[in-house]
């Protein structure tokens, strides 16, 4: 993840929230974009480039 998203993620962890669960609900590029827009609108994420690479490993 890029720096703006990583900052949001770490703040959420420090507040004992589960940001990985919120990111797991973004199952498409469109849902991720909507999620980022909501974070930006709420002031939780600064307006910067935002990229996330998600790799799922199946056992």
Features of the shown structure:
59 residues, mainly alpha, 0% strand
Secondary structure elements and pairings:
Blueprint: H1 3-14, H2 19-24, H3 29-42
Written overview of the protein:
The protein has 59 residues and is an all-alpha fold. It has one domain (1-59). The protein has helices spanning 3-14, 19-24, 29-42. It is globular. It starts with a helix and ends in a 17-residue tail after the last helix. The mean pLDDT is 95.
Mean pLDDT across the residues is 95
Helix content: 40-55%
- How many discrete domains? 1
Q: Which structural class best describes the helix and strand composition?
A: mainly alpha
Percent range for β-strand residues: under 5%
In short:
Helices cover 54% and strands 0% of the residues.
């Amino acid at each position: 993840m890029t720096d703006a998203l990583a900052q949001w993620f770490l703040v959420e962890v420090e507040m004992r929230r589960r940001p990985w669960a919120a990111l797991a609900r973004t199952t498409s590029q469109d849902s991720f974009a909507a999620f980022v827009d909501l974070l930006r609108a709420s002031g939780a994420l600064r307006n910067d480039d935002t990229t996330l690479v998600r790799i799922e490993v199946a056992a």
